[in-house]
What does this fold into?
Amino acid sequence: MLGFMLATMLCVVSTHAQKSPLQTIILDPGHGGIDPGAGGQYSTEAQCALAISFKIRDLLAQELPDVKVLMTREKDELPGGSRSKDAALKYRANFANENKGDLFLCIHLNSANVKYGRRLDGYRTETYFVYTGKGKRKKKISKTREVPIYTKYRLPFEQQAHGTETYIWAANKGGSKANAVGATEGKMEEGLTDSAYDAELNSIEHKILIGRYTQYFFKKSYNLAQFCEEEFVKAGRYSRGVMQRNEKGIWVLQATGMPSILVETGFISAREEEDYLNSEKGQMEVATNVVTAVKRYKELLESNMKNAVAVPVGGSK
It folds into this structure.
């Protein structure tokens, strides 16, 4: 059974493989409720991420009507009635895995410390006192000096952290991703019963299979992340590129058994981007960029399926 699955993973043409490669998208607006995320001057990450996600959902319904889109939350609250951020993270991953998502798409906003400069705005006269002499001859003498006047000001937008970046799971979290893949992809072949799956669970062939899936999902995640950043650039945005957070990881990306990306749509800490991401125009542009990237991703998957060559399980010589 698992040998057949491994062959399928290596682009073997089968009845199962002929199904659409992108049937269900899990759309995850970050944060929510008691977890507002990053804060701007007048809005929160949770609010903006939800508004942008609604527009992505609606555009996907128009552009890809055959693809099911499920959102982890549709209100400004933690998903699934969760009472803590950690519980909410687990809910997001479980929701994606239980609904057998083909893609996990997480929407966030970025933040960084605001940078300030110091400007010289002239001088003021300051009086100070010195003493001369000793004992009864000691005298207090006043003097004056010119003291510079500085004004603190916010540095221009271009000097603030700004732009988009899209994350894929950390390079050192492949084991965690493999575990998630193993939990959700182990029964992909139709007809594989629980007993048959359990019997093969610890086999070398099974481990190879899961490793293949994990590598496959990593490549597809990178493809989609790159497409997103390319679309942002086309729209005139500054792209910080495809990123990995290796020192800490991003838990939902490695806990979902499917290709997964997290899109940082801009810096809410930069007023210009906060305004943009709160505007109807900005939200629609971001949503359009992401949906166009998803369409390109779907086309890539379908092209790979069409170009697949049937190879026997043992390979060919």
Remarks:
- The chain has two domains: 2-113+160-306, 116-153.
- The beta strands are 24-29, 68-71, 103-110, 116-132, 139-154, 164-167, 239-243, 260-267.
- The first strand starts at residue 24 and ends at 29.
- The mean pLDDT is 84.
